[in-house]
Amino acid sequence: MMKKVKLGIIGFGAQGSAYAGFIAEGKVENMEVGAICDIDPDKKALATEKHPDAPFYDNYTEMIESGNVDAIVTCVPHYLHPEMGIAALKANIHALVEKPAGVYTKQVRELNEFADTKPELTFGIMFNQRTNELYQKVKEIVDNGEIGDIRRTNWIITTWWRPQGYYDQSAWRATWEGEGGGVLVNQAPHQLDLLQWICGMPKKVYSNVKYGYQRDIAVEDEVTTILDYGNGATGVFITCTHDVMGTDRFEILGDKGKIVVDDSKKVTIKRLKQPESEMSSNMSMQDVMEIFMGKGPGELYDEEVIEFESVWGAQHTAVLKNFAANVLDGTPLIAPGSDGIHGVAFANAIHLSSWLGKEVELPVDEDLYLAELNKKIEEEKRTPIEK
């Protein structure tokens, strides 16, 4: 019986080296570094220095087949997550894929369908924000019906400021061929996942997306999307990488209350004493005038404010611990790998709406999306942006 999961880390960049460090420091007590893999020869010396007991590979297939790992995590460019996940599962190795699960739903669906044939293996995704107590609390309130049926969602998440130098670090970054998109696939996948995890997937989206708006890049750095949930409820999702001051504000309006999340640290819950529809039907104009004249909010709703502290890395280690626990004793996964397709579908719909200049329904036509993405890749090859 395994006591610790031996993790193979594919990609020893910022994320992969951070995970190795967390594990080496004992922050993931049910996991150890089994091996490290990277195609960059310069990474070998660094990995060997920091983790001398972990074998180093420059070929992930060799690492998977080495017998040194029970599981892998894919800290590599997004296009590679599905193929590496499938390769691991084929070899009866557990797979934890980084977000996003892939660039387009067709490839993520292949991963999910293959994972379904290996139910005895653990398949997870690094949606670390699902371990954030704040968002767990928000989901609990919505699921419990405390604010009633959702009428509107608004999320403005512009705390992703990235200067031009960030994009100039490497040739693959912020390209259709290398990264598969911009802010939607790099910075904002967590918010896309949380939005659908808490509020459900929209049925339609209509988006205004700017490509290379404030940065010399081919992909999107500015996104405004209108959501239609199909039951009358609507939403707006806004994100960008050029707001150095940044805003992170998430509102969920229900017919019995409202949730406001500020800076992913503070949540304000307002619970109406009677549903808004009843207020509208039953109030006299005298009652309404009293509200307009500043009637105390305490007479209309109760307010609760909760503040949360966040420790960098704690949410990542929580996913690693949970993943290992599922391998070792079947503890339910916080973020099953199959959930990864939802955020990718969301991002694909936002892109496709902007490319076609019209509202699109979800799920989008996967073949159409891939054809349009390939057009972007071909255009990029003809007129590459120098870095």
From TrEMBL:
<dbReference type="GO" id="GO:0000166">
    <property type="term" value="F:nucleotide binding"/>
</dbReference>
<feature type="domain" description="GFO/IDH/MocA-like oxidoreductase">
    <location>
        <begin position="135"/>
        <end position="259"/>
    </location>
</feature>
<dbReference type="InterPro" id="IPR055170">
    <property type="entry name" value="GFO_IDH_MocA-like_dom"/>
</dbReference>
<dbReference type="InterPro" id="IPR052515">
    <property type="entry name" value="Gfo/Idh/MocA_Oxidoreductase"/>
</dbReference>
<dbReference type="InterPro" id="IPR000683">
    <property type="entry name" value="Gfo/Idh/MocA-like_OxRdtase_N"/>
</dbReference>
<feature type="domain" description="Gfo/Idh/MocA-like oxidoreductase N-terminal">
    <location>
        <begin position="6"/>
        <end position="118"/>
    </location>
</feature>
<dbReference type="Pfam" id="PF22725">
    <property type="entry name" value="GFO_IDH_MocA_C3"/>
</dbReference>
<dbReference type="InterPro" id="IPR036291">
    <property type="entry name" value="NAD(P)-bd_dom_sf"/>
</dbReference>
<dbReference type="Pfam" id="PF01408">
    <property type="entry name" value="GFO_IDH_MocA"/>
</dbReference>
<protein>
    <submittedName>
        <fullName>Gfo/Idh/MocA family oxidoreductase</fullName>
    </submittedName>
</protein>
